[in-house]
Amino acid sequence: MDRKHFLRHTATAAIGSAFFINGCQSQKNKTEIKADISKTYKWKMVTTWPPNFPVLGEACQLFSDWVYKMSMGQMSIKVYGAGELIPGLEVFDAVSSGAAEMGNGAAYYWAGKSPATQFFAAVPFGMNAQQMNAWIYCGGGIELWKELYQKFGLIAFPAGNTTMQMGGWFNKEIKSIDDFKGLKMRMPGLGGKVLAKAGGTAVLSSGSEIYTNLERGVIDATEWIGPYHDYIMGFHKIAKYYYSPGWHEPGSVLENMFNLKAFNDLPEHLQIILETASARMNLWVISEFEAKNNEYLNKIKEEKNVQLRTFTPETLQKLRQYTDEVLSEIALADPFTQKVYDSFNEFRSNIKNWATYSEKLYHNL
Ligand code: CA
After folding, report:
1. How far is residue 218 CA from its own chain's centroid?
2. Candidate CATH numbers 3.40.50.300, 3.40.30.10, 3.40.190.10, 3.40.250.10; the one for domain 168-249+304-333
């Protein structure tokens, strides 16, 4: 049936055994849904990424295309890069107020609204992409995320993951935790708080300033994302050592956030399309990062001036200890953050135990 023919009718669809990503609950009984498909929706999506930013920005455009096709043109979403409609860090407020119906970013940008947001993006020594998906979709995470965002008139779904990031670019070797003392490093969020406990100074630089700041010695070191994005930034031209692992961002979740009223006012089939397209976006971003990071790590390895290094187990152990202190401090200061931290922590302990018997052994083969 083409859309023209479709529009003459009010659609009645029978959905059997539909799988809803919300909380991993499946709906086993057939449900009759009636939906008015004559009304069209034109939405704005504001994002925290520069226009057409590799992977993250591209994914927003793909999402928009999928939604348009899945809804047979009933819903169109125009994507705006950071600065095109509003600055990137105003996405939360713009979607919360309804100035834009939806946005894309990472929840740790909104730590100023609630420290708990950070658990829905990344915490140092947290979980990897696969484990974050398990906690959010099937381990109680999304229910807590909804409870938190509801207070701001929002609802969010996972829409990507940067996967394991790299530990950063340095011009001196980091042989022990003491080498962080006095180090000025671009390191946002909780990672920055951990760095401060190690005696370093966390410097906030926006993406566009990092290269110049590192080149001019305003900062001694920087983290960014992973080999693909780091290579595009050109850090291999001005830094000697490229360290792994990205202990501070082992699996940063990206989010699609929606104005709750705008979302609730949609017919049910469009709500399901938005949820489903967000899940596809999540899968695409993870897959694209894995494929591209692998390709670009090889390019970086070919650079004669760059040496790949790993942090020593003792250094990581100490950073982990400082992380536990930082997390306990932010949880103690806010009851809802404590609730999210408890859920996150319990899930992390259990899934690490499972990983010891599964992925960890397999990766050592
Ligand atoms: Ca990063």
Report:
1. 28
2. 3.40.190.10
